[in-house]
Amino acid sequence: VYCTAGGLANAKLARKHLAQAVQLDPNNLRAWYGLIAAAEGYLEEVERLSGKGRKEAEEEGVEVAKELIKFGGEKLMQVYK
């Protein structure tokens, strides 16, 4: 729900909640897919920002989002091989 609501704060919250879901059940493929989608949503929200807000967001979570996408994608690929 947070991802679809839009906004940087909601994207961060969605990412946090889905990371907790993955932590509770590492075999939950929906949680992994949701985490990847939330991280991609976060990156999209950062791209929409400009100026100081974008710089702060980039320092704060862009690399984390990219790593989550990479790691989550690898996890899903292992399952579907």
Helix content: over 70%
The major pleated sheet works out as:
none
Q: Name the poorly predicted regions.
A: none
Alpha carbon gap, first and last residue: 30 Å
Radius of gyration: 13 Å
Q: Tell how many strands the DSSP assignment holds.
A: 0
Mean pLDDT: 85
Give the overall silhouette: elongated
Sequence of secondary-structure elements: HHHH
Briefly note the structural class of the backbone. Answer: mainly alpha
What is the count of DSSP helices, taking H or I runs of 4+ residues? Answer: 4
| Proportion of beta-strand residues | under 5%
Question: How would you describe this structure to a colleague?
Answer:
By secondary structure, the protein is an all-alpha fold. Helix content is 88%, strand content 0%. It has helices at residues 2-5, 8-24, 29-48, 51-80. It is elongated. 28% of the residues are buried.
Write the layout of secondary structure elements.
Elements: H1 2-5, H2 8-24, H3 29-48, H4 51-80
Helix pairs in contact: 2-3, 3-4
Task: Describe, in short, the structure shown.
The chain is an all-alpha fold. It has helices at 2-5, 8-24, 29-48, 51-80.
Name its key features.
81 residues; mainly alpha; 88% helix
